[in-house]
Design a protein that fits this description.
With 132 residues, this protein is α/β, with parallel strands linked by helices. It is built from 4 helices and 6 strands; from the N terminus they run E-H-E-H-E-H-E-H-E-E. A 6-stranded mixed sheet has the order 4-3-1-2-5-6.
């Protein structure tokens, strides 16, 4: 049985490796779809309560909401820290691909839920899909 859960978060970022347009500071409504595969179900036919998944996954997703996500080696980091601007530094350029792998890995490692696939969209027309 595969359970799909949808989440979203709003965040600013820039990706200097992504060309001129993506290199400018801008924001997205990131849409996240997580797929969990459960092998067994209980007598009531339930594999896992949706709310139990939410309790574990939402804190991870919401931890990025309304933040500026920035590569830790971006030269702006030093200036933003000097100005006491709140940022989330990440160990990679904030491409959609890198963010999808990062979220997938965090959910897998920190929740121990059986996540098998993640979809991450930053626009209505573009998303990436990452599977383990
Ligand atoms: Zn972007």
């Amino acid at each position: 049985m595969i359970i799909e859960k949808k989440y979203h978060f709003y965040a600013a970022h820039r990706n200097k490796a992504g060309g001129e347009k993506c290199g400018r500071i801008h924001g997205h409504t990131y849409k996240v779809k997580c797929y969990f595969e459960f092998k067994t179900k209980n007598e009531g036919g339930i594999t896992c309560l949706f709310s139990d998944i939410d309790k574990l996954v939402e804190p991870i997703i919401k931890g990025y909401c309304h933040w500026f996500l920035i590569y830790e080696k971006d030269p702006l980091v030093e200036l933003l820290e000097l100005a006491n601007e709140p940022i989330i530094k990440l160990p990679f350029e904030t491409s959609l691909e890198n963010l999808a792998i990062w979220l997938f890995t965090r959910i897998k490692n920190e929740t121990k839920l059986p996540i098998i696939k993640i979809e991450l969209a930053e626009t209505k027309s573009s998303k990436v899909i990452y599977e383990s």
